[in-house]
Amino acid sequence: MTAVFNALHLQAATLDVIAATHAPASLLLQRQQQRLARLLDAARSGSALYRERIDPAVARAAHLGRMAPVARAELMDRFDDWVTDPALRLDELRDFTADESRVGDAWQGRYVVWESSGTSSLPGVFVQDAQAMAVYDALEMVRHRASAGRGGGAGRWFGSFSAFDALGATDRTAMVAATGGHFASVVSFERLRRLNPWIAQTAHCFSLMQPTDALVAALNEFQPTVLATYPTAAAVLADEAAAGRLRIRPRCVLTGGEALSGAAREHVHRSLDTVVRSSYGASEFLPMAWECAHGHLHLNEDWLILEPVDEHYRPVPRGQPSHTVLLTNLANLVQPLIRYDLGDQVTLHSQRCECGSALPTLEVAGRRDDVLRVPSRRRKGETISLLPMALCTVVEEQCGLFDFQLEQRDARTLVLRVPQHGEAAQAAIDRCCDALQDFAQAHGAEPISVLGELGCAVPRGRSGKACRTMMA
């Protein structure tokens, strides 16, 4: 029942992160390159898979551009060849994560293990040792905590929620997430509770998968001062607060795991009368980016490399949105991730943030949901692509609807589903249908039909992430 933790590793990582947080860009790059060389050496030495993939010249030059990207499917298919510790066997880890009673337990007494949700591809199993966890903890304690302060709460929680997060001595923390698996959020939350007896008494996890009225009743009874959840779930709870059913007054709402739109942020802020902080992370690297006091996400690029690329894996210039992004995790030497296709759409910026940090800023559009394609009126036989982020922006910002799913039924028909009933819900769907039809035609599509369906629960993946746009 012990949690993976090493005080010396944490002390060393914390001092390093403190020193680098306000360091010039040249020093950050130097740290990054040193860690990349270490990672490549460890991967070639300990991983049979990477010995095949990493050319010695690439390792000596620490030049990633000459390496082919890798996808989760290949890594999971060759898991036992991928990891650098031969004691890690995928079949044993699968058995471990199949047992919900062992969430938060240390595997073999020295590894933290969690699984991804599998919403965008097959589920992955990810393993971290005490040294990698110390880096994640230090990044959160130093950067995320300092960026938010007492009034704003911890800057990053989702998937990590470290034992040293910025929780006040009188805080009551509610994490609203799916509790049916060894997901990063739940595993990390349980680790926090085991490392800190005080937090174990004042921090509780509430299942996102239960009926909304039951969740609202439980939160009303608990009265959290810090609420942590997905943006889509936060928006649903904001609806409940606006309707007078959810009666809590958190000092901050922490969101992660999904992209937080400006409209959703304002909706949560207004309905719950609280500060809202977002973050960017994944099962593959927990605290990838933190939100500064100026509202910008800063990439922790001294401990990771993020390469925005197009659909052919060619680099995308800064300031332009990517098709996907390649992640290289510089902290985890047990399970090397080098040029890993993360599946996120991001935009890295070159301008220096007003907060003074040299760490680059980025915008995150989220995971690649299904792109909906409808007939073009300009070129017969061709289609127009309707991007998920653009469609969600229309529904959220123009129509004020935050809990929904948009499905393409056929070439000319979209179906918008919402869980609500009644006249107000029907009016919201009518607004959305008109706005989506106008949006599609403005982008060169032939006229399409948008149908509305009331009283439909929005599907969520195993980890609780909402499925927003999809093909039938």
TrEMBL record:
InterPro entries membership: ANL_N_sf, CapK_Type1_Caps_Biosynth
UniProt xrefs under SUPFAM superfamilies: Acetyl-CoA synthetase-like
Highest taxon listed in the record's lineage: Bacteria
Signal peptide start and end residues: none
Protein name (Swiss-Prot/TrEMBL): CoF synthetase
